[in-house]
Structure prediction request, 295 residues.
Amino acid sequence: MLKRVVIAVSVVLAATLAGHQLIPALGGFTPVMESLLPWLGFAVPLLLLAAAVARSKLAAGVALLPGVVWASMFGSTLLQSPPGGASDLAVGTVNVGVTNDASGEAVRRIADDLDLLAAQELTAGGPAAKQLNKMFKHHYPVGTVGLWSRYPLSQTKPLDVGMGWPRALRAVVSTPKGKVTVYVMHLASARPGMTTSRDASLAAARKLIDDDPSKRILLLGDLNTATTDRGMSGLTPPLTDAQRAAGDGFGFTWPSEFPITRPDHILYRGMTATRAGVAPATGSDHRAAIASLRL
Prediction:
């Protein structure tokens, strides 16, 4: 009996990993499952252990199948090293946490070595905004999101990404190497059975990118969409994920104490990522995503 269970579960797991995008959304359950896709690999050692208990070589062989599929999907993510090299722009994004009384300390530690920092879940006049105003000469907040820059900002405007109120912005940053169009977004939340609003905001974000003729585009923010979520295929491409291109590992950012997924992203076009990673954010339930780019 145990042998049959191991074989059946192994086949289903391998099929789920390989064909997850073919599984219906099931009211929003599947996209959330996809956010945790890398963690399904932990089932493989358990299946092998069960096969050993059942003393079945056939079950053990079949249990290796999802392991092979997992390795083909995520092995390069774990083995790759940042390309490194010279960079022109150091950027970051962090959801500071709306109830985080230590948000000022959080952004101070993150922003020290950055040229641009995007923040979400800001409170007007709160500690994060006050601290960033001291550190950066140029800034543009819109409601609960904002952008802080060491370089001048122009063509700033608030954006509604399908939520009925501005929770995103666009600005052009004039760097020494040229202009970069920057979007900061905090998209709608995604929960099992509740991804309709998030999907609509993703579609709105994609339209903004598609309609923007800028040579260089940078999208920073809490997109409430993991790298492995089918919804991310609406943005990557046309944009490139800095963590995938130049990161070391999965770069999970949420929840901060034991991150299991990555809703916080740095996406770009017309540049090259040289490094990417995460940084702690004091008091927030998110970690920050950071990256270095060459223009």
Notes: The mean pLDDT is 94. Helices lie at 2-19, 29-35, 43-54, 57-79, 103-111, 127-135, 196-210, 242-246. The chain has two domains: 2-79, 89-294.
